Amino acid sequence: MEHVSFEVPERTSASLIGRSGVGKSSLFGAILGMVKPTSGSILVDGRDVQRLTSVERRDFLARTVSVVFQSGELIDELRPEENVALPLMLGGARAASALSQAAALLEEVGISPAAALTRDLSGGERQRVAVARALVTRPSLILADEPTGSLDRETRDLVADLILSIPQRWHASVLIVTHDPELGGRTDASFQLLASSTGPAHLVQR
């Protein structure tokens, strides 16, 4: 990719659409500071993540960015509220406080705090838990990597509704990486990453 430039304003949603292999994951990794671009800059909350030291970048991104993965990436042996509370406890919060915040957030996304082990949840319920876990640290930006890719159509629409409500309900920006043009068409802004037979991939606003 060369000369790829886009912006996700505060409290808005955007989608990045493209087929496999075109560079979506690389761009995703660059935002998370895992991939170093050869030129240019990546600003999150006004700070260039590539100019931070590795420790500064880790701490800054932990406070400002959360990720929702396609398969949820939850720990099956934990209860849902324990999965949601984990980022807070890793950040030093007391277990009781973290679990209380997690339970409240799970109710907001439609999951009972009394739910069984995470492994017993349906696919849609797992993604709701994953969204709650992403929200619990109150980030400025949520990156969603094919968040509805493994769901049936009805469940996909419900999870999409939840994710697209984040800017207004929880005041975070959302960037969705997806193959699904229907989901991409529902965001405030949509960008398509296109492969080129004559050069690097390029970005087009839809």
UniProtKB/TrEMBL annotation:
InterPro entries documented for this protein: AAA+_ATPase (IPR003593), ABC_transporter-like_ATP-bd (IPR003439), ABC_transporter-like_CS (IPR017871), ABC_transpr_LolD-like (IPR015854), P-loop_NTPase (IPR027417)
Keyword ATP-binding: yes
Pfam families to which the protein is assigned, alphabetical: ABC_tran (PF00005)
Domain ABC transporter: 1-203
Residues forming coiled coils: none
Keywords associated with the record: ATP-binding, Nucleotide-binding
Top-rank taxon: Bacteria
One GO MF term attached to the UniProt entry: ATP binding
Signal peptide coordinates: none
Name the UniProt record assigns to this protein: ATP-binding cassette domain-containing protein
Source species: Brachybacterium equifaecis
Organism classification: Bacteria, Bacillati, Actinomycetota, Actinomycetes, Micrococcales
